[in-house]
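Pilot study result, target chain (159 residues):
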Amino acid sequence: MEASALLYTQEGDIYKVLPNARVRARLYDTDGKEVKTQMLTSDNMGVVQTQFTLPKYCKPGNFSVEFAMVDDNNNPYPVKETKYFRVEEYKRPNFSVKLDDFTRKLALTDSVNFEGVAETFAGIPVANAVLKWKLNFDSWYFYHNRNKGGVDRSLKSQW
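Predicted structure:
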């Protein structure tokens, strides 16, 4: 996971970047426990960048990265910035769905039939599967007004 921050000061309407500022970056897990800490120094543009490797096995949920400027003794100043991000479990699929290619141009009122197969990676048809699909279409109008639409449907397999 990569994280970065821009360090600056503000006095009224005047903003100034903070080059060569010392920063402590901390990664916290879903339980609020510190996973790793890194000490960083901002570049000439006031930017710090870092990478954290998440634990191989961790509980899914909200992780956070905290940036805090520190003094020469690594004591943090009172101002900190924390950003949260979600970590989810990766679930490897155990089947595949293959649809025949469709190349004909369609109008909004046209009817279409798609044919395909749902099978395990061993090549066996998936029994009693429920196929869920969603048709999305976007329409663009003058002045770039975006109008989205969609249709949700479910079908039961016939195997």
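One observation from the pilot: Confidence is low (pLDDT under 50) at residues 140-159. A full batch analysis is planned for the follow-on phase.
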